[in-house]
Amino acid sequence: MVDPLFALAIFAGSVAVLLVMFWPRRGIYARLSQSFRLTKQVQLEDALKHFYMWEQAGRTPTLESLAGRLTISTNDAAKLVTRLTESDFVHPGREGLTLTTLGRESALRLVRTHRLWERYLADRTGVPAAEWHDEAEIMEHSLSAEQTDALSARLGHPRWDPHGDPIPTASGELPEVEQLSLGLAPLGMALEVVHLEDEPREIFNGLLNHGLVLGGRVEAIERNNRQVRVLVDGSERRINMVEAQNVTVRVLPESQHTGSRPITLADLDLGETARVIDISPACRGSERRRLLDLGVVRGTEIRVDMESAAGDPVAYLIRGALIALRRSQAAWIRIERAESLVEVAD
Fold this sequence. Notes:
The protein has 346 residues and is of the alpha+beta class. 42% of the residues lie in helices and 20% in strands. The protein folds into four domains: 36-98, Arc Repressor Mutant, subunit A (Orthogonal Bundle); 100-177, Orthogonal Bundle (Arc Repressor Mutant, subunit A), CATH 1.10.10; 182-256, Ferrous iron transport protein A (FeoA) (SH3 type barrels); 265-345, Ferrous iron transport protein A (FeoA) (SH3 type barrels). The protein has helices at 4-22, 28-56, 63-70, 74-86, 101-124, 132-139, 145-154, 201-209, 241-244, 285-293, 327-330, 338-345; strands at residues 90-93, 96-99, 190-196, 217-223, 227-232, 235-240, 247-251, 273-279, 301-307, 314-318, 321-325, 333-337. Helix 2 crosses helix 5 (101-124), helix 5 packs across helix 7 and helix 5 packs across helix 10 (285-293). The longest helix has 29 residues, at 28-56.
């Protein structure tokens, strides 16, 4: 004969398991179902963005390109396209898959959120540049249109993300972009970096390792079929053609051609005084905000006041306060030496 208490315990345990599995909204089944739905929604949105990016590049997206981008089978890609077509986001025509007006608007909202979040990470946090894209890939699916608009307002409605890509407005308008790649730029001219492609990540990391940053100054001095030899802040770099094609530049007017590496605060000797010209574009996020909060702005005079025994950090007199900076931080601050200022005044 079965013990009634044992049977009751078995029954209670079974009920508890069922509750844990199937409790509305909080049970394991409900959570798995929600996760599945979110994953499918993310795939649909990623598909829309893929179509938009390929259209922008002048290419026609295919089932194969979509499957490769989302790392899914061609069969699963076909199911996604079917859902997008039924929802009037994609139109399959003779020329291939194209976005409808509704699909393009939805894709632009994703692109807008992604690029604004990258701008936020670059300007307001200490997240490394190599991680901006992956972080934004997550947030583009999480923020509502209202939250994205609030983020844009908080950042001052920027027009460009930290890679130089245009940020769509709330109505979907885009500023014009430069089209000259470093691989085709004229030799011997002062150039400004206006865009660094952030995909694939390996190439973007390579560009960062070369010292290339948005707003940075470069000069192409020699080119062959395999590489471009360039000056980056006065230092010579050899950049292969694949990397060079992922860098967009504009030719600067002659009045902005310095012809040599900019002088920075790190170049000064003890007792020298200089005036700030600007802060390098390579200095971002919390580091840049700290320097600005210290009064390191154009026109500020700075004197090298003391050096540590090891020569690093160095104490600088900035607006009456003694501030210690490491040489790596001082190298971000571009300056004019006091002698140059005297010559201009004479």
